[in-house]
Design brief:
heterodimer, A: 269 residues, alpha/beta, four-stranded mixed β-sheet, 47% helix, 16% strand, globular, B: 257 residues, six-stranded mixed β-sheet, 10 strands
Chain lengths: 269, 257
């Protein structure tokens, strides 16, 4: 009985290997859609990425045929006659902190989109630094069909990534965008054959986990800040971040290795 | 001094004081506040110090007063409390105080920032006066200095809700002068302090006094005071030196006379 409970409770699986923390959204029968408990488990898993120094790359993927279908509507107990719910509460309590933490994590994040990424699930996929999708994966901004708004940063990421015209089309029509289309539009980094996704992501994650992690964190900050900074502010930020990068051990290791024509060994600091 | 609640470090003419009680989130108990003021008063009399930087740690600048002290307070003990006197001594420091704030500055910690001269905030900084949530109100200038710095609506909102604001909001409101990357906040504050400490000490002193008087008097009186401070510098060696160095295109050598 106790064992059964433990197994069914694992809505998030984590493995840590070679500096790569892999978080798998694990409610395959519900296309890995979120309920409150899954949010809490995901939050705990992200804490590992935040606090464990040996983690130098984070991979997020989904179990089964989907990546993440967003909010589980079975968890939304509403009917036509019932009192209107406060969806802002769930956004503020779960989705917004999640996206803020992913964006602020000073380590590279790869989202391995193995199947459908819908609603908040699409936003979470796009919050990754490098998004790799299997050919059969798709992205859907499904909110418009229910009278809702793309949340979890969806309305911010989309125009940043694909421009306003395409963002509007996706958000207002809720059409399914194929992985190939997403790649053409510049929404994601790479598309692989379905059976190649795991290997591709694995190799990339392993590579990133040997790179100057601290510097990658600074790059992430610079790129994210660019969306809201003026050129002048961004130049100042680059100066500050470069100052920090120059003080890292990895910078000196990198230069030394280059000058001595050897392979660098980065510590991520 | 008797414990390590305040770490003190001098580099050139800049004294850096670090609030160092991480186990209690740098809470400003009365003894801790007193110790800080003792350090400041010591710096005040040291001619080798031109400016002071106060900082905390990455997560907390200072998270308020000591709640246990407040819990034990009665009306009688509040009336005779020596804490207001300690704050007055803080406000009387005539050398510039630059604060480098990362993380939380709440309650008394925030009031310390308000009582200082320049605030440089890290991106992670959050400012607030949560006293109202405990059934009390700010008691060290929070209601007075905040409204002068940011105006009525935001000051009322912060004091009455007890909710914090971000570094970015604080800068927009004019509460902090610069926001930097967390890892560089202290460095930036020290660079500003170093720049100030390189100017003629008497002029810096007079400038700070004139600026402080702007908050304490009406315009006509303030202008009169400013004129007096201006005139008081006329006979100083450093004023001659400053102007001479400008014409001779060289760096001035100030002596503090």
């Amino acid at each position: 009985m106790i064992n059964d409970t433990v197994i069914t409770d694992e809505m998030i699986l984590t493995t840590l290997e070679n500096g790569v923390l892999t978080i798998t959204l694990n409610r395959p029968d519900r296309l890995n859609s979120f309920n409150d408990e899954m949010h809490r488990q995901l939050s705990a898993a992200i804490k590992i990425a935040e606090q464990d120094e040996t983690v130098r790359c984070l991979v997020i993927t989904g179990a089964g045929r989907g990546f993440c279908a967003g909010q589980d509507l079975n968890d939304r107990n509403v009917s036509v006659g019932s009192k209107a719910p406060d969806l802002g509460f769930s956004v503020e309590t779960y989705y917004n902190p999640l996206i803020r933490r992913l964006v602020a994590l000073p380590k590279p994040i790869i989202c391995a989109v193995n199947g459908v990424a819908a609603g908040a699930g699409a936003a979470i996929a796009l919050a990754g630094d490098l998004v790799i999708a299997a050919k059969s994966a798709s992205f859907i901004q499904s909110f418009c069909r229910l009278g809702l708004v793309p949340d979890s940063g969806g309305s911010w990421f989309l125009p940043q990534l694909v421009g306003r015209a395409r963002a509007m089309g996706m958000a207002m029509l809720g059409d399914k965008i194929s992985a190939e289309q997403a790649l053409q539009w510049g929404m994601i980094w790479q598309v692989t054959e379905n059976d190649q996704l795991a290997t591709t992501v694995n190799n990339l994650a392993k590579h990133l986990a040997t790179q100057p992690t601290y510097g990658l964190g600074l790059i992430k900050k610079a790129i994210h800040s660019a969306a809201t900074n003026t050129l002048d502010e961004q130049l100042n930020l680059e100066r500050d971040l470069q100052r920090l990068g120059g003080r890292s051990q990895d910078y000196r290791e990198g230069v030394d290795a280059f000058l001595n024509k050897r392979e660098p060994t980065f510590q991520g600091k | 001094m008797e414990n390590n609640w305040i770490l003190s470090q001098q580099h050139h003419r800049v004294l850096t004081l670090t609030l160092n009680r991480p186990d209690v989130r740098n809470a400003l108990s009365t003894p801790c506040l007193e110790l800080l003021v003792k350090h400041l008063e010591h710096a005040q009399t040291d001619d080798n110090i031109g400016a002071i930087v106060i900082t905390g740690n990455p997560r907390f600048f200072a998270a308020g007063a000591d709640l246990k002290e407040l819990q034990q307070q009665t009306v009688a003990s509040a009336i005779t409390d020596k804490r207001p006197q300690v704050w007055r001594r803080f406000a009387q420091i005539s050398k510039p105080i630059i604060c480098a704030a990362n993380g939380y500055a709440l309650g008394a910690g925030f009031e310390l920032l308000l009582a200082s001269d320049i605030i440089i905030a890290g991106e992670s900084a959050r400012f607030g006066l949560p006293e109202i949530t405990l059934g009390l109100i700010p008691g060290a200038g929070g209601t007075q200095r905040l409204i002068r710095a940011v105006g009525k609506s935001l000051a009322m909102q912060m004091v009455l809700t007890g909710e914090t604001i971000s570094a970015e909001q604080a800068q927009q409101a004019g509460l902090v002068s610069e926001v930097c990357v967390d890892a560089l906040t202290l460095e930036r504050a020290q660079a500003i302090a170093k720049r100030i400490a390189g100017h003629a000490p008497l002029a810096v002193n007079a400038a700070k006094a004139a600026l402080v008087s702007a908050q304490e008097t009406h315009l006509t009186e303030g202008l009169k005071l400013e004129r007096q401070y201006f005139v008081s510098l006329a006979g100083t060696d450093d004023r001659q030196e400053g102007i001479a160095a400008f014409f001779e295109k060289r760096s001035p050598q100030f002596t503090g006379r």
